[in-house]
Write a structure and sequence with these properties.
576 residues, alpha/beta, Glutathione S-transferase Yfyf (Class Pi), Chain A, domain 2, 4 domains, 55% helix, globular
């Protein structure tokens, strides 16, 4: 049957699809960089064949089909698709439990966060801990639940977290030994009777008395050993030239010692320059900055350059929109301090999101020039009588600046990434279009290209807490691509949050009687279960703006491709 699939069934459907794709290419909408759901479905199918995943079906079967390959390359080049396949999708469900302090859990939390690994961060009060203590492995915290199974011992958990996050060497035994050395030195200090006794004591005065020997002998001895060991590697990080969980352990230790614990001077780490270098390296890591510095934006609802910069960079921030009737100006609050200058706010958001260069002064200068021009024209747009000539003048000025940037080699490295001048330009462009001056904008090729680039970046993004509310979604399928992969990709490309549940055959058999049509995939929408892969794909495509719900002809073309896929997947040769 597989041989018939390769020689008869697949070629028949490929030929039909190729003809449809060629016809669709005649419509302007399908000539853009925008990815549609039928292209996602086609991409996953072509990928499966190219990877040789079908028995007796040659991986070269599609080589001569121009439009199949063009669609495949288009979707493969999408940044969200690249990001999706860079992530690990078979990770277990993780729950870390510790006290509401950094302590031994902090390097574990940071490892998960830096590695982009989802986990539940449960923090128990000391009173809550006493109630569950007897139920814990070894009666202590932290513990990590892995798919419901609790494991204990902070160093074992940190190694595990580091392995998942790519921050613990699993193939270089010597390097892993060096990392473990750092672990053990810190753990030995934490396990000293003097240290353990003070952790259990809640009275600050008693703590201070019990800790008399810690700053005199125990802590300096540990720091001296660590300083000497780190110095031996002669790098920016604890064990050499790149970040590992050893750096996170040192960072958490110094953070704890600098916190002003009773009896421990906050400057106790000052003499240890190599350790402080490691501390500063970790502290400056974008992910650490993101999770340690509270950021709050107070600004008008809708398109705001700072809001866009933070959102595009997936920076965690509190968004408090102002209504037009509110009194007050926009502000960016960083660690409790307010900043109100719009350009300074934008540069800060750019640094946090990676959309403003931190290492190239010349590049920053060229970006700043455009931001300054935009600030200048924005001020003039507040005049009681806005002259059309002002918009024409500044549009031409901005177009010239953008043309010049295109000839600068370093900017070509950022073709797939939005920079803050493009974000600011985008907001201005949308304002001008909203005033009815589309004709002025459309005359300027570089401005339109920057606008399109930003539109693609923002597709499906939730820019404020008050913007589009998505239902709670849970997609259930097997732990492989199959019919669910285009659905997963569509949700991910559109930036729509969803739970990606992957179950085995045994679990399916247990649930089968409760499933619509007794099959997968299924999508739960606010608890309501729906079935049929193509129906689900249409739904998520519409939800994410990847499927036309207003252009009947465009939707018909997409549905035509869907129908061919459905006919293929239900064919006898495929299911035999």
């Amino acid at each position: 049957m597989r041989e018939e699939l390769a020689t008869v069934t697949i070629p028949r459907y490929i030929t039909l699809l190729e003809a449809r794709l060629e016809k669709m290419q005649q419509l302007p909408i399908f000539q853009s960089d925008t990815v549609f759901v039928h292209e996602i479905a086609l991409y996953t199918w072509v990928k499966m064949i190219k990877q040789g995943l079908l028995d007796h079906v040659p991986a070269t079967l599609l080589d001569d089909y121009k439009f199949h390959n063009a669609t495949f390359e288009k979707v493969a080049a999408n940044q969200r698709v690249k990001e999706w396949y860079s992530l690990q999708h078979d990770l277990p469900k993780l729950k870390l439990t510790y006290f509401p302090i950094p302590g031994r859990a902090e390097p574990i939390r940071l490892a998960f966060f830096i590695g982009g690994i989802e986990f539940e961060d449960e923090r128990l009060s000391f009173e809550e801990y006493e109630k569950v203590k007897s139920e814990l492995p070894f009666n202590q915290l932290p513990i990590l639940e892995v798919n419901g199974e609790p494991i204990s011992q902070s160093l074992a958990i940190l190694r595990y977290a580091g392995s998942l996050a790519g921050l613990y060497p699993t193939t270089d035994m010597l390097e892993s030994f060096h990392v473990d050395e750092i672990f053990v030195l810190i753990d030995e200090m934490y396990n000293k009777p003097e240290w353990r006794a003070t952790v259990r004591e809640r009275d600050p005065e008693k703590q201070k008395k019990m800790r008399e020997n810690l700053p005199k002998e125990i802590i300096p001895k540990t720091l001296e050993f660590l300083e000497k060991r780190v110095a031996a590697f002669n790098g920016s990080f604890a064990t050499g030239t790149h970040l590992t969980v050893a750096d996170l352990a040192i960072y958490a230790l110094i953070l704890s010692l600098k916190a002003g614990r009773p009896g421990i001077p906050t400057n106790i780490t000052d003499p240890y320059k190599n350790l402080l270098c490691v501390f500063d390296q970790v502290k400056a890591h974008p992910k650490v900055v993101e999770c340690t510095v509270p950021i709050r934006l107070i600004a008008l609802e809708g398109l705001h350059p700072v809001r866009l910069a933070l959102s595009v960079g997936d920076v965690n921030f509190e968004d408090k929109p102002l209504s037009p009737t509110d009194i007050g100006q926009s502000a960016l609050q960083v660690d409790g301090e307010s900043f109100t200058h719009s350009d300074a706010m934008l540069r800060c958001a750019g640094r946090l999101s990676g959309s403003y260069p931190a290492t190239s002064p010349i590049m920053a200068l060229q970006i700043d020039e455009i931001i300054h021009v935009l600030s200048e024209v924005q001020a003039k747009m507040n005049y009681p009588k806005l002259e059309t000539s002002i918009i024409v003048h500044y549009a031409s000025l901005l177009e010239a600046r953008l043309q010049r940037l295109r000839s600068v080699p370093i900017f070509k490295l950022y073709d797939d990434k939005v920079l803050i001048h493009e974000i600011a330009l985008y907001c201005w462009t949308k304002t001008i279009r909203g005033m009815g001056f589309d004709g002025i904008i459309d005359k300027h090729k570089c401005i339109v290209q920057a606008e399109t680039k930003m539109d693609n970046q923002l597709r499906g993004k939730q820019l404020t807490q008050q913007s589009r509310k998505y239902p709670k979604l849970k997609l259930t399928y097997f732990p492989f691509p199959g019919r669910a992969e285009p659905i997963r990709l569509a949700l991910f490309i559109a930036g729509i949050p969803f739970e990606d549940e992957r179950i085995g055959v045994d679990e399916l058999n247990r649930r089968r009687s409760k499933l619509p049509f007794n099959q997968l995939p299924v999508l739960e929408i606010d608890g309501d279960v729906v079935s049929q892969a193509l129906g689900i794909l249409r739904y998520v495509g519409t939800l994410g703006g990847l499927y036309s719900s207003s252009d009947i002809k465009e939707a018909l073309r997409i549905d035509e491709v869907f129908s061919l896929f459905d006919a293929f997947y239900t064919s006898y040769a495929w299911n035999a």
